Every structure is written in C-alpha cells, then in structure tokens.
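Message: Study each token:
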Amino acid sequence: MSDHRVAPVTAHEPPYYAVVFTSVRTEDGDGYGDTAERLEELVTEVPGFLGMDQARTPGGLGITVGYFRDLAAIEEWRSDLEHRAAQKRGRAQWYEAYTVHVAKVERSHTFERVPTRE
C-alpha cells in the first residue's frame, strides 16, 4: 500500500492558467500507461508548470487539469516533441474523443482539514 496522500494541487497566487483536458478513451490501451507516466514526468520539467489534478469517472470520462504560470509555459508544453508524438498516437489509438480548454485563473484558495487529536 502506498503512503502517497491524495490531495488537490495547492492554490497558487493568481493569475495563472489551467489547461483542462477532458477525454473518453478507446478500449485499446496498449502503451497508454507507460506514455502517460512519461508525460507526467516530462511536464514537470517545463518552467512555469505548477501541478496537475486528474480524475476518471466509472463511466470512463477522464479529466486532467494542468496548472501553468503563464501562456509561454503552456506553449512550451504544447510544442514538446514527445508530447506531440503522444497526441498523435492518442488521436490514432487511445481516444474516442477529447476536449481541451485553456482558462485564466483569477481567484484561487485552498482548504485542508487539520486532523484532530483524541
């Protein structure tokens, strides 16, 4: 069992940007896991990358939100050669459909419950 705690990305000082990738995958997952793991490593190297939240519904809808300091960071990620190759393979093999939204975050805050002692 992992000791990794599930938690959303901490709020950052606005303004910054959120890239929302919403997808439905095909049944052909060959190579998807390894590619997704590599991209998660790679995006952390982009200057201005702030973090990422991910979720998948039981019905198969996946949502990934990447947070970036500015549009230049998003463009660097969008144009990364490995990322571009994965996008191409995704359209050919892994996705039935997807949508990408880029939004400017104007306000952000965090709440975290503090454990009580008994």
